[in-house]
Amino acid sequence: MEGYGPQLPQIPQTPQFPQIPQDPSQQAQQGGYAWIPGATTVGAVFSGGVILASEKRVTYGYFVMSKGGKKVFKITDRIGVACAGLVGDMQILAKEMEAQGNLFSMDTGRKISVRSAAKLMANILFNRRYAPLITQTIVGGMDEEGPSLYVLDVLGSLIPDKYAVVGSGTEIAMGVLEEGYKESMNAKEAKELVMRSIKSAISRDSMSGDGIDFLIITKEGITEESIKF
Fold first, then answer.
1. Residue spans of the chain under pLDDT 50
2. pTM for this structure?
3. 40 given a catalytic annotation
């Protein structure tokens, strides 16, 4: 049946361009991980509240940009967040959460719960999924239901837990934290365990170091502490 009916036009062939080989070191830097700031950030629930902590080093690739970076933030008088990732994204997220928590209190006449604050943060992160805030976050605090802790990733996945670690030092710190964790711990025992887990990560993770910031949340309120080393 050759020649029967209208003939379809020929589709032009897509020109083939030679592939340019990339320098492996340049590809590693552009690929992302070499330039993502490291951190060791820990959260844990104890018998009377929640403790959040993070070390203070801010890196860019292999360069230490700051030895006094703050990665733990107070959101309300009973809720805090601790982050790992880009410092600017952490700060924007913490300020937006603080504003949203205040608006919630003014609208409803009551304080926002820890779960509601964590869910609100999850919605913010998910809505930014096409231009994400590069940060892993731990939300912890006290409310009428007691102490609670939630872990969120870049896209807003919301996972409740009793203890958590995020950042480049996760594998090292988690081993120490998991081995010594007890939900019946008091504030002093929890602080010592968290400090030990972060110090163990600092000893092996070059992107973590230079001190620890603590946020200790109980029914009396929030206590902020900081140590340098």
1. 24-34
2. 0.83
3. yes
Range of the domain at 70: 39-227
Does residue 1 form part of some domain? no
Domain-embedded: residue 82: yes
Q: What does the H/E/C string look like for the chain?
A: CCCCCCCCCCCCCCCCCCCCCCCHHHHHHHHCHHHCCCCCEEEEEECCEEEEEEECCEEECCEEEECCCCCEEECCCCEEEEEEECHHHHHHHHHHHHHHHHHHHHHHCCCCCHHHHHHHHHHHHHHCCCCCCCEEEEEEEEECCEEEEEEECCCCCEEEECEEEECCCHHHHHHHHHHHCCCCCCHHHHHHHHHHHHHHHHCCCCCCCCCEEEEEEECCEEEEEEECC
Q: Is residue 27 part of a domain?
A: no
- The domain tally of the chain equals 1
Render pLDDT for 171-215 as a digit per residue (tens, 0 to 9): 999 999 999 999 999 999 999 999 999 999 999 998 999 999 999
**List 40, 76, 135, 170, catalytic entry:** 40
